[in-house]
Amino acid sequence: MFGSIFKKRTRIEKALGVTFRDANLLREALTHPSYRHFEEPGGVDNQRLEFLGDAVLHLLLADRIYRSNPRADEGAMTETRRDIECGGTLAAKARGLGLDKFMRLGKSEYSSGLANADKTMEDAFEALMGALWIDRGLCCCAKVVDRLFKDELGEPVPRGAQRDALKDPKSALQWLSQKTYKTQPEYIPKGEEGSAHNRVFHFNVRVAGCEAEGWGEGKTKKEAQAAAAADLLGKINV
User: Domain 159-235 is of which CATH architecture?
Assistant: First the structure.
């Protein structure tokens, strides 16, 4: 069953979008300690790779969460990462890659259902990340994380857009609208008040498909629109 792992393009490699240079690393990542103990004494299992992959995943998720949510505080980012790193999430990702079909376990463990247990799958996924780190490096691991966790992380916000969110909220909102909602923000004047020399403008901004709205005021229309954009960005936590 495991021989197919060494084909040029395996199911796992296709799902990852990566071909291992050293297929033995993939073999090691899918070797449960029970296999080493009962079937291959003196061999290796995936525990060392799991240790490494846990750190790799921790770092890359932190980086992606930080860049995707420039207005989120430390507590919110920590909670997001904790939710993603929970065993159930990682186990689901492992099964989606087909790791449960290729795990190497001791013979008795197959009948016990250990091959598909959440803990087994979580460990295998982290070991796979460790193997990728050694075999292909940081950039490859980052691309895999971006692809596999797209639903949980969303699209990373470019660094320029992060700066815009602080310095030019209208540009940041326009980027977000195009990327997420495939449309442009609509700025709606909501009146003005004050004397000719002390005028205050009010604006509302909406994005089709987004339930939240932004409201702002300023001494110029541009300033009021920027305030409305900043208000909406804050409500959608970008």
Answer: 2-Layer Sandwich (3.30)
Name the active-site residue from 54, 123, 135, 164.
54
**Residue 91 CB partners (closer than 8 Å, separation 6+):** 118, 119, 121, 122, 125
Instruction: Give percent above pLDDT 90 in the chain.
Output: 45
Within the chain, how many helices (H) and strands (E) appear?
A: 13, 3
- pLDDT tens per residue across span 163-172: 445 457 887 8
Q: How far apart (Å, rounded) are the C-alpha atoms in residues 106 and 51?
A: 21
Instruction: Give the residue carrying structure tokens 């890359």.
Output: 60
Pick the CATH number of 2-153 from 1.10.1660.10, 1.10.10.10, 3.10.490.10, 1.10.1520.10: 1.10.1520.10
For the question of residue 126 being annotated catalytic, the response is: yes
Instruction: Sort strands 186-193 and 200-206 into parallel, antiparallel or unpaired.
Output: antiparallel
By the 10 Å C-beta count (0-12 exposed, 13-18 middle, 19+ buried), 46 is classed as buried
- The C-alpha angle 60, 95, 4, rounded to 5 degrees, equals 105
Catalytic residue among 126, 135, 164, 231: 126
Q: How far apart are CA 156 and CA 64, in angstroms?
A: 6
Backbone angles phi, psi at 42, to 5 degrees: 90, -5
Residue 186 known to be catalytic: no
